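Hello again,

I reread your note about wanting to compare the complex against the isolated chains. To keep things tidy I'm splitting this into two emails, and this first one only covers the full assembly. Below are the input lines as submitted, including protein chains and any nucleic acid or small-molecule components. They are followed by the predicted structure of everything together. The single-chain runs will come separately.
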Amino acid sequence: MNEAVQYLHAVYPLSDEVLSHLDSILKSRSLVKGEFLLKPGEVCENIYFIKKGLLRCYYLRGETEVSAWFMKEADVIVSVDSYYEQVPSYEYIQALEDCDLYYITFYEEDYIFQTYLEYNVIGRLLTRKYLQVWNRQLRNIRMLSAAERYQELLNKEPELLLRVPLKYLASYLDMLPETLSRMRNRISN
Amino acid sequence: MNEAVQYLHAVYPLSDEVLSHLDSILKSRSLVKGEFLLKPGEVCENIYFIKKGLLRCYYLRGETEVSAWFMKEADVIVSVDSYYEQVPSYEYIQALEDCDLYYITFYEEDYIFQTYLEYNVIGRLLTRKYLQVWNRQLRNIRMLSAAERYQELLNKEPELLLRVPLKYLASYLDMLPETLSRMRNRISN
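Full-complex prediction:
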């Protein structure tokens, strides 16, 4: 069993039939640091499992890049609206490190949902996981001060501070790079 | 079939067995305008279907009420983290109009997911629907100007402008009540 199938099987134990079907259709793709997985105007045709590496999703506000999320090992990623509706994306997804990914297409996933009811348990639980992530992001932006958002990142995802360039993290936290830099220096001193 | 079961059956056709099980456990509750469905510190024990009415979810930022969402007829609502984790909520859910709701408990829903695999299709599709709503809210706050966020609301959910007091809408759109009031007047003139 490869890493993606192992991960799914741990979310919900799947029958041998589904496991071998998944094994037969999973494709792999590697990206070098800086390479794009998706650009605006393209349809997000695949759902990806991250075996190794780190990716950033962002969009442009005028000339400014706004980071929507960072995902790493064992995350499952899509450009939400583009994937579910199979319409052109307004987002970029870019590798911040060399990455190894597994993926299946939207239509392959849809076939699995329709053919193997049990796979819907996994679909439900993974969607719920990311609804909770999105919910926490919305709450943090609306409810917390810049200093509290930084503290929250430090508590929940300290790894990002080591792996993501500061200029990308700042817009994710809805603050200016200078503010984030000041906070980091204050806390590390 | 009552309205909630009809709605679920339209999302994905369910077997007679699930339909009659749902019919036997669904409970109803009515709220008068201003009444609370949930307060901070309480666990969101139920998942609700709105048959009639409009509800607001909000939390406090210092002394300020920040509106997280408004849901109306045919929406399915919970306080996301509190319901999924069965932990105390930090949110209020309040009726903005007289409401008629149907509901089942977290444990009743969990039993259905475990007993009837087909029900996971509905769980997946409804979770996905709200992930897209949350995704759009995040994008709007991060990417659009105040004027564009107002225009988006006008295009996508014009009904809210008629049914929700302006002071509640302003924090939902991440703007001051005076800004929203000015925009509304400018556009309606």
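For quick reference: The mean pLDDT of chain B is 94.

B.
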